[in-house]
Design brief:
Helix content: 25-40%
Number of strands: 7
Radius of gyration: 17 Å
Strand order of the largest sheet: 2-1-3
Strand content: 15-25%
Distance between the termini: 31 Å
Shape: globular
Number of helices: 5
Oligomer: single chain
Length: 143
């Protein structure tokens, strides 16, 4: 489970996902304890899914399977292989993930960033469901 500062920031700025979040048992989230400059604390909901959710105080950190469910439902994809094919196509076409370079007259595609699977799937969800891409600081509308 990704609990990096980068993933927390990406999730925090993904307002659509935060607004749609209906807390369920074992969901992962993070929060700051008392001070704005305090480190992030992360946790999962207890088996009853109970806590006092105040907008802005808790940030939902979806797991990879939750992100896959979000986009699978949106695209009405119910077979995992179809979802993986869509994800693979997006990754190869997306300038977010892949850059094309030429070395010794060979065209090579390589990853632009060192991204976790949660970060990649979050970017895929935001692209497919909300038409947005991550610019390193915030989600912006895709052109």
């Amino acid at each position: 489970m990704d609990t990096s500062e980068q993933y927390i920031k990406m999730c925090e700025m993904a307002e659509e996902i935060q607004e749609e979040w209906e807390p369920k048992p074992f969901d992962n989230f993070c929060y700051r304890h008392r001070r704005e400059d305090a480190p992030w604390w992360w946790s999962e909901l207890d088996r009853f899914g109970e806590f006092n959710k105040k907008r802005g105080s808790h940030i939902f950190l979806p797991r990879q399977n939750q992100l896959q469910e979000m986009v699978g439902k949106e695209k009405e994809i119910f077979q995992i292989w179809d979802l993986i094919r869509e994800f693979n196509f997006w990754m190869n076409q997306s300038d977010f993930c892949v850059e094309t370079i030429i070395i010794n007259k060979k065209v090579i595609k390589r990853a632009k960033y060192d991204l976790t699977m949660e970060q990649l799937w979050l970017a895929f969800v935001m692209s497919q469901k909300h038409g947005k891409r991550w610019d390193g600081e915030k989600w912006i509308k895709e052109e």
